[in-house]
Amino acid sequence: MRRKLFAANWKMNLGPAQARELIRAVRAQLDPQSGSLLKDREVMIAPPAILIPAVQQELAGASIALGAQNMYFEEQGAFTGEISAAMLKAYGVTHVILGHSERRHIFGEDDVLINKKVKAALRHELTPVLCVGETLAQRDGGETTRILTTQLLAGLGELDAAQVSKVVIAYEPVWAIGTGKNATPDQAQREHGALRGTLVERAGRDVAHSVRILYGGSVTAENVDSLMSKPDIDGALVGGASLKADSFVRIVRALTV
Ligand code: PEP
C-alpha cells in the first residue's frame, strides 16, 4: 500500500506574513483531522527557500513535512546563490523537489545535474521528488514515452534499488503546468503506468510498486478526485492551487469527501 503524498510547490510566491497566514489557515483545517486523514497520506509544503525558517516555525507540532524547491549538489564552497542539502536539513527540511520543469526549461538544468542533486539529497537523507515531463511539442511529436524514460533513468543514474526506493517521482507534463489544462486521468494513468513499468525493469517489481508517482499539472479541488482514483497515481504536486488554504486542503482530502 503506497501512502499518497500531496505536495505544495509555492514557487516564487508569498512573503513571510502571507506564508505564515497560509500555514495557519491550512493547519486550522487539517490539524483537527490529522489523526484520521493522514493515516494513508502525507502532506508536504515547499515554500521559497528564504521562507523556510518562517514556515518551519509555523509547522511546529504539525504532521506536515517541510520541503525545498531546489538545492545544489555540492557540500559547501564558492557557489554563489546556491543552498546545500545540509543547510536545508538544518531547518527541518525533509523533501526536495528536483528537476522541476521550470528548473529544466528556464534555468537550463539537465539530467546530469539533476542526477547529481538526487544523489546529494539521498546522501543527506532528504527525499528527492524527481520531476519528469514532456513538452507539448514532444507530446505532439509522439516522443512522450522516450522523454519520460530518458528523464527517469538519467535522473536515477547509478542509484541501486534500495536508493531508488527512497525517491518520489512526479510526472508533470510541461503543457499542463500553470496552464489550467490538466492531463486527463486516463492520459496521466497511461504515463504513470509506463513510468512504473520502467521502474520495474530498472529496480525490480517490489521497489517499483513501492515508489510513489505523483501527478502535477493544474491539479485543482475540482479535478483531484478523478486523478487520484487511478491506480498508479499516488498523490499530487500542486502549484497554483496550493496558494489558497481551501483549495489545497480540499486536494489533500482527495477521495475522502
Ligand atoms: C507545479 O508547480 O509543479 C505545478 C504543477 O503547478 P500548477 O499546479 O500550478 O500547474
List keywords for this structure.
257 residues, alpha/beta, TIM Barrel, eight-stranded parallel beta barrel, 13 helices, 8 strands, 43% helix
Question: Can you describe this structure?
Answer:
This protein has helices at residues 16-30, 34-37, 52-58, 85-90, 101-105, 111-123, 136-140, 144-156, 161-164, 185-203, 205-210, 224-228, 245-252, and strands at 4-9, 41-46, 65-68, 95-98, 127-132, 168-171, 213-216, 235-238. With 257 residues, the chain is an alpha/beta fold. It has one domain (4-252): TIM Barrel (Alpha-Beta Barrel), CATH 3.20.20.70. Helix 1 (16-30) crosses helix 13 and helix 6 (111-123) crosses helix 8. The radius of gyration is 17 Å and the shape is globular. The two termini are 21 Å apart. The mean pLDDT is 97. The structure holds phosphoenolpyruvate (PEP). Phosphoenolpyruvate binds at residues 9, 11, 100, 172, 177-178, 216-219, 237-241.
**How much of the sequence is in beta strands?**
5-15%
The end-to-end distance, rounded to whole angstroms, is 21 Å
Number of strands: 8
Going by CATH, the homologous superfamily would be Aldolase class I
CATH-scheme architecture: Alpha-Beta Barrel
Proportion of residues in helical segments:
40-55%
Global geometry: globular
CATH C-level label:
Alpha Beta
Radius of gyration: 17 Å
How do the SSEs run, as a string of H and E? EHHEHEHEHHEHHHEHHEHEH
pLDDT averaged over residues: 97
Number of helices: 13
Q: Indicate how many domains the architecture comprises.
A: 1
